[in-house]
Amino acid sequence: MARNDNSNPEEREKSKTVGPMRGLIPYLLPYKGWVALTLLALIATAGLSLTLPLAVRRVIDGFNADDIALLDQYFFAALVIAMLLALGTGLRYYMVTKLGERVVSDIRKAVFARVISLSSGFYDTVMSGEVLSRITTDTTLILSVIGSSISVALRNVLLFFGGIILMLFTSAKLTGLVLLIVPMVLIPIIVLGRRLRNLSRENQDWIAQSSGSASEALLSVQTVQAFTHEKLSSDDFSAVTERAYESSKARIGTRAVMTVIVIFLIFTGVVGVLWVGARDVRADIMSPGALVQFVIYAVMTAGAVGALSEIWGELQRAAGATERLVELLNTDDPVQDQSNPVALPCPVKGEVSFKGVSFHYPTRPQQSALNKVSFTVKAGETVALVGPSGAGKSTILQLIQRFYDPSSGQISLDGVDVAQAERTAVRGAIALVPQDPVIFAMSARENIRFGRPEASNAEVEVAAKAAAAHEFLSALPDGYDTYVGERGVMLSGGQKQRIAIARAILRDAPLLLLDEATSALDAESERAVQQAVEEMSENRTTLIVAHRLATVKRADRILVFEDGKIVAEGTHEALVDEGGLYARLARLQFTEG
Fold it and tell me: What is the pLDDT of residues 288-344, one digit of tens each?
């Protein structure tokens, strides 16, 4: 799959703030009550933390008091505060962690619901492995932030401002000295924080590319091994992983430097302030308890600033992850439903009409896949599309299903322009048998039932018999309930195709699209399936794309495509008599002329 031009981390525009974190607000709003309780627990624990030094001061200064009972009360009060702080901290952890898990689960569901609905044009330029990385790795980062970092950050903000205020009440002189240190601490946080933000985004981009590379290789592992491409694939993956490591190393180094600078500045300031405070105690300007109280507040405030510098790095990484997820959620789908879609007739009969349709694939804008194609397939008619590879046959089927919209012209289903109809309504009237059948990692029965989830077991088996699949499915170890493996690795190509045909039969849609549906079948199975297709086609519209002309001889009409245009039209016999491209193809495939 082609990579998006913007998938290179070095070419992406990088945000310099944590502003993208605002993208999380819509997912927090449904739980505002829970958020409020979490904030209350957070404020309560921060308040108790700020109260503890007051109790310590009372205890220290109480050593000089004559009233032993009063001293006991101070110790008891300190113990009660510590117990309440422990309970509050545990409650805060539970609430904020649960909130994080809930929000991230909602984000994952929203992102998956979005990407699973995006049209084929999106996946022409984006690797599915990169999308999976965003859903997993990026949301894990966000979970870390919501479930921990934001809570810790808010708590430290409260401790910082509360500590500063209580320091002022304890000693305005010493507090002034402490505040002189703050600008020196904030400068490296701001300067290095911006670089850390960029490095974090780049690191996540390379991780996503690494995931995409691995996914692509593993999904095609037999082809990789058949062409002895294991080392080359491993080298490609290693190269991308090394780039991820290098960007991670730069991020870690920047964060380590920032941590060293901040902690050194903070504790140098604390030592200086403590030295001045000790001289004030000796001069009886302040009591020992007041100095200890001030030092505890100073350490709490310094620790809060240090923690905020650490958390800032986490917020930078999470901002990058949020930005990438919001990109997915806000991706413009090249194929979109109208705000007021036109309803299809009920029931759908299946008449298909192309009027002057031209189309260019988004990744090949200079190359025309279809050029002013016009034809009509009447309800109940069977029409075959033949021609050399790349002539536009499969493109016709993709446009009917609205995987893409035409560059110009109009495609109608029962007289309704499909571009004006709802995509799910159009696709709900279609049953598809693709050239490369998709088999899911589930039982054979569930793979067939994928065509109509509410179908009964009996209906599944009827469809399998019609597709000449019943015999081999019954012979499997667990019959229809046999697990067929990822992508159907336990089945042969012909068996997978017959399951795909049974799935389409079970769907029982008015419009049937067959894209090389019998290409992987042996002669005996092909005859059986061809008979089933003919019976199924009797009361529904059928479009057949085929290179093997034996499968289209009985079609009502045959459309011959070449270079994105219809060059001939008629029955098999008429086209053979006419000569031209179809007659040449027929001579190559049949012993008779």
Answer: 777 777 878 777 777 777 677 667 767 777 777 777 777 777 777 778 788 888 888
Q: Is 406 left (phi over 0), alpha (psi -120 to 50) or beta?
A: beta
The pLDDT mean for the chain works out to 78
In this structure, the answer to whether residues 286 and 364 fall within a common structural domain is no
Q: How far apart are CA 344 and CA 341, in angstroms?
A: 9
Residue 406: asked if its preceding bond is cis (omega within 30°), the reply is no
383 & 321 share domain:
no
Buried b (16+ CB within 10 A) or exposed e, 234-246: eebbeebbebbee
Domain of 232, CATH number, reads 1.20.1560.10
Q: Torsion angle, CA of 439/442/448/449, rounded to 10 degrees?
A: -130
- The b/e string for 498-533 (b: 16+ C-beta within 10 A; e otherwise) is bbbbbbbbbbebbbbbbbbbbbbbeeebbebbbebb
Query: How many domains, the chain?
Result: 2
Q: Which of 511, 497, 479, 325 is nearest to 400 (CA)?
A: 511
Q: Assess if residue 452 is contained within a domain.
A: no
What count of Cα atoms within 13 Å lies in the side-chain half-sphere of residue 171?
A: 27
b/e per residue 342-355 (b: at least 16 CB within 10 A): eebeeebbbbbbbe
pLDDT of residue 484: 83
Residue 341 lies in a domain: no
More reliable by pLDDT, 206 or 520:
206
Residue 243 lies inside a defined structural domain of this protein: yes
Boundaries of domain holding 35: 21-329
228: in domain: yes
- Tell me the percentage of the chain whose pLDDT exceeds 90: 1
Mean pLDDT of all residues in 399-404: 88
* CA count, 13 A, side-chain hemisphere, 532: 26
Whole-prediction pTM value? 0.65
Going by C-alpha positions, the residue among 313, 53, 38 that lies closest to residue 155 is 38
Amino acid at 247: S
Cα distances (Å, whole numbers) of residue 303 to 188, 281, 520:
16, 24, 68
Phi, psi for residue 422 in degrees, rounded to 5: -75, 135
Half-sphere exposure of 248 (CA within 13 A, CB side): 10
Distance CA 206, CA 229 (A): 22
Rounded to whole angstroms, what are the CA distances from 187 to 66, 201, 262? 49, 22, 9
Asked whether residue 105 falls in the same domain as residue 137, the answer is: yes
> Which residues lie across from 353 on neighbouring strands?
376, 412
> Do the Cβ atoms of 109 and 101 come closer than 8 Å?
no
For tokens 């310094």, name the residue.
302
